[in-house]
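USER:
Class, as today's exercise, take the chain set out below, and explain how the chain folds.
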Amino acid sequence: MLLRYERYGIPIKELRVPPSVNYCKYFIHGNCDFKGVLSAKQRYKSKHSTDFNFLEFLTKENVEFTETHRMATLKMESEYLGTAKYDRPEPHMNDDQLLDLKIAFEWACKHFRSCNESCVVSLEKAVSEATLSTSAGLPWSLKYRNKGDALDAIGKQVLDALGKK
């Protein structure tokens, strides 16, 4: 099977690969199409840090404490299992359910007033407020070091065309 991974018109890689064992194991309902494999190493950051103020407090209070937990490490099978929950048909709502959804949205907007201030901003504003030194995200991160490099290479015209789709 020849697969071409392409996103937003940017060809990434052509591969001859079958679906993985985990894909076949977890995506069994046929609602998610296998599109290919993307080989990209993830650089997970360890966000664990010791709270020295808390340790000082425990010492002053003569409380014995041994830190025994750490952040969980990701496992590929867990990633498939977590994503496979989307392998289900689109829900079809009757009129009562749609009305309930509308009421819930109205309540959320009243409770979280920031919903009323949300809007789509122009490309210029989005680019001016973006942190250009951070990752451009897949698939662009496979070719470009950061958002700034990606923007310089593909230009604002491509992004503008994407926004109009």
Remarks:
- Helices lie at 21-26, 52-60, 76-83, 95-111, 114-117, 123-129, 147-163.
- Residues 1-5 have pLDDT under 50 and may be disordered.
